[in-house]
């Protein structure tokens, strides 16, 4: 809020004028930069400097007078957030050059929603923006930054990458002043082992590990079997409740029955809360109204390739809506953020029960909530950690991505945000998720899955000299074309390769949760009967350089993920 020179007050519709009863000037004002249309400056050499803001509804706010000059400093600050250009009719007027239509039209939603402008959306709502398909990215993306000045038409793609980097505050690249690093050279990861996968765990195998009171026996062994082969579909409805923490592994059948009764009660009490809200009450509760609007939009875009969600008035879609609205009552502070419906739809499909699906979803969100928080701390941390792992595995590929202004790895944002939900078929995602939920073979296994996919695409990206646009387009078009078993094999092989490395950087050990180069990898000697139906996966077609510089943070471990520091010398891919 800014105090201005007093003169006759003008009506403000977009500028909220706070009351001056609390000591604030009645000329103070507040407005959003998205509402700014133009800025008028004083005529050069005529009195002290001033700026007049004109909003999009033609409201003109009181002038800001700069008695000591330096109005240029404010203009410079504003240009960090909006693009300003001189009006052809009056050089004193700076027009806010919002992203043009060509930019918006160059992106299409993955499920045929209306087009969005990437820069505008990613700064306002990064979750919505990352749901946007990159399949038609063209040079329009750069046109939006060029404006109408022909002299700027040769601006490099790096401007776009720099602009995108501002979308996630705190994700700083090339930070050169961070102290406390040790240089670790000649990291030899050794040969990558061959990994085998088995058939899914059968009902018979599951039953063998249950005692007379219904407790799960040999929990570690059960998790290892699930990690190696997943679950047969008939088992998922029961086993997922354990994997997600809804049922304790050591609970009896009777204890689980009592727990379910309690959870049914609790669920319908919360559901009644939002069901009993009248239209008038909802009009006065903007947050609830916004949550409902977002949920309805997302539910209508649910993947209909699965018969469970076919048809506009399908009961599955209605349950999706009700569960998500109830979750807003359960965690009103977080509420609903776009993308959550992607996490719920497979759970509801497997559970076929509203209450069980809700509590499994709530447990899953306990793991995933940082992805959806406003400050995006979870997403920042994961992108930093992914870049660290990828550089250790293949510094040459990282350098290539950086040279194409793709070192930020934003093309992996959607993978991380909703755990590959839109990259694999509906049935494949069931297999992938249940394997990840075992917590094996290490912490942050999903980051190694990202590395495995990127490693598979490295050759095509580099040999065809893909640039910024082509990389985005190529990664987007991988959707529904990735072999889930192949990726799981490669990711596990990477984890085994890393754990055998005696010189693994401390930063990598912390990311993967390794202590003294030991990992909770499923045993290689899993028994004869468990080797039935094993499938073999070959190792990577290329290995990382046997001798390459890797930089790791030194010092005590900090459990706050936002504080993980990478080397200042590792260019763009490992931000501090």
TrEMBL record:
Sorted UniProt keywords: Acetylation, Cytoplasm, GTPase activation, Phosphoprotein
One protein family per Pfam: PH_RBD
GO molecular function: GTPase activator activity
Compartment list: Cytoplasm
InterPro entries given in the database record: Rab-GAP-TBC_dom, Rab-GAP_TBC_sf, SGSM1/2_RBD
Entry's Gene Ontology cellular component terms: cytoplasm
SMART domains listed in its UniProt record: TBC
Region listing for Disordered, in residue ranges: 1-21, 555-576
Chief site of localization: cytoplasm
Domain Rab-GAP TBC: 230-440
Annotated Polar residues bias: 561-576
The keyword Transmembrane helix belongs to this UniProt entry's keyword annotation: no
Role noted for this protein: Acts as a GTPase activating protein for RAB7A. Does not act on RAB4, RAB5 or RAB6.
Quaternary structure annotation from Swiss-Prot or TrEMBL: Interacts with non-phosphorylated form of RAB8A; phosphorylation of RAB8A at 'Thr-72' disrupts this interaction. Interacts with ARMC12.
PANTHER family: TBC1 DOMAIN FAMILY MEMBER 15, TBC1 DOMAIN FAMILY MEMBER GTPASE-ACTIVATING PROTEIN
Name recorded for this polypeptide: TBC1 domain family member 15
Organism of origin: Rousettus aegyptiacus
């Amino acid at each position: 809020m800014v105090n201005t020179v007093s003169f006759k007050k003008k009506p403000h519709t977009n500028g909220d004028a706070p009351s001056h009863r609390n000591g604030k000037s009645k000329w103070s004002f507040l407005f959003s930069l998205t509402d700014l249309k133009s800025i008028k400056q004083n005529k050069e050499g005529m009195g002290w400097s001033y700026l007049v803001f004109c909003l999009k509804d033609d409201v003109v706010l009181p002038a800001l007078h700069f008695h000591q000059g330096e109005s240029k400093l404010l203009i410079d600050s504003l240009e960090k957030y909006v693009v300003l250009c001189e009006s052809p009719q009056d050089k004193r007027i700076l027009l806010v050059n919002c992203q043009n239509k060509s930019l918006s039209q160059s992106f299409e939603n993955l499920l045929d929603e209306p087009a969005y402008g990437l820069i505008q959306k990613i700064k306002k709502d990064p979750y919505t923006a990352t749901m946007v398909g990159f399949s038609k990215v063209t040079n329009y993306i750069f046109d939006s930054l060029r404006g109408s000045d022909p002299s700027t038409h040769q601006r490099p793609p790096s401007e776009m990458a720099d602009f995108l980097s501002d979308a996630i505050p705190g994700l700083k690249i090339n930070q050169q002043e961070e102290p406390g690093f040790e240089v670790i050279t000649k990291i030899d990861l050794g040969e990558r082992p061959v990994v085998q996968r088995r058939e899914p765990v059968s009902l018979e195998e599951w039953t063998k590990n249950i005692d007379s009171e219904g407790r799960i026996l040999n929990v570690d062994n059960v998790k290892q079997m699930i990690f190696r082969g997943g679950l047969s579909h008939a088992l998922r409805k029961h086993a997922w409740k354990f994997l997600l923490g809804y049922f304790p592994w050591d609970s009896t059948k009777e204890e689980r029955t009592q727990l379910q009764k309690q959870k049914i009660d609790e669920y319908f009490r919360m559901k009644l809360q939002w069901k009993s809200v009248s239209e008038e009450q909802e009009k006065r509760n903007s947050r609830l109204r916004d949550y409902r609007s977002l949920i309805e939009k997302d539910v209508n875009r649910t993947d209909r390739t699965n018969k469970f969600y076919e048809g506009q008035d399908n009961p599955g879609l209605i349950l999706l809506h009700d569960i998500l609205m109830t979750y807003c009552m359960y965690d009103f502070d977080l509420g609903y953020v776009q993308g959550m419906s992607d996490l719920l739809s497979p759970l509801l499909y497997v559970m076929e029960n509203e209450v069980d699906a809700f509590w499994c979803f709530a447990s899953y969100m306990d793991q995933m909530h940082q992805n959806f928080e406003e400050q995006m701390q979870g997403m920042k941390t994961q992108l930093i950690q992914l870049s660290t792992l990828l550089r250790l595995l293949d510094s040459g590929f990282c350098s290539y991505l950086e040279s194409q202004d793709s070192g930020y790895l934003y093309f992996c944002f959607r993978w991380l945000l909703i755990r590959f939900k839109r990259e694999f078929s509906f049935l494949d995602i069931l297999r992938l998720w249940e394997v990840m939920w075992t917590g094996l073979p290490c912490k942050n296994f999903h980051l190694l899955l990202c590395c495995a996919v990127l490693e598979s695409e490295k050759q095509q990206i580099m040999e065809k000299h893909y640039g910024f646009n082509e990389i985005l387009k190529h990664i987007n078009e991988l959707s529904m074309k990735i072999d889930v078993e192949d990726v799981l094999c490669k990711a596990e092989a990477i984890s085994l390769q890393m754990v055998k490395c005696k010189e693994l950087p401390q930063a990598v050990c912390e990311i993967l949760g390794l202590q003294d180069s030991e990992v909770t990898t499923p045993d290689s000697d899993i028994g004869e009967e468990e080797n039935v139906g094993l499938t073999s996966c070959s190792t990577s077609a290329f290995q990382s350089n046997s001798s390459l510089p890797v930089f790791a943070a030194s010092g005590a471990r900090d459990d706050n993920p936002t504080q993980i520091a990478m080397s200042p010398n590792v260019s763009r891919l490992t931000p501090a």
